Every structure is written in structure tokens, then in C-alpha cells.
Amino acid sequence: MVPMMQITEAIFANGVLKPESRLTLREHQRVRLIVESIDTPDDATRAAALREFTDGVANMKFKSNGGGYPTRDELHERD
Fold this sequence. Notes:
By secondary structure, the protein is an alpha+beta fold.
């Protein structure tokens, strides 16, 4: 049997995904879901994510053993 694919958008509310269009499925039919958010984050969410990222980068500790950092080619040559 060839698997059937249907694409629709859905709303997640009260712990349940609610499709926006009717699905042609048998009762208790098993399906595979791939969930992709289609909402665009608002400016406050985007700004908070950027702050978290830049704070994380600022707190990173990169150290060398005194010999400098390896070049890109040296990194790709190592085993």
C-alpha cells in the first residue's frame, strides 16, 4: 500500500492539535506528524533570544596552550 500524505495547518490549543481542514483518516489510524511552527516571533521574543545568544557568547572562555590557535587547514587535517 502506498502511504498517503496530506498537508494542512493546525492550531495547538489546550494540549491538542486541531487541523484547519478535514483529514481523510480511519478512526484510530496511526500517522506520522512533523511539526513546524509557521508563526513569526514577535519583536520582544526575538530581542530576548538575541540577548540570550550575545550573553552566552560574551561568557564563553576560549583558551590556547600558548601556541596560538590552529588554522582552519590544521583543524581539517587532524584525525
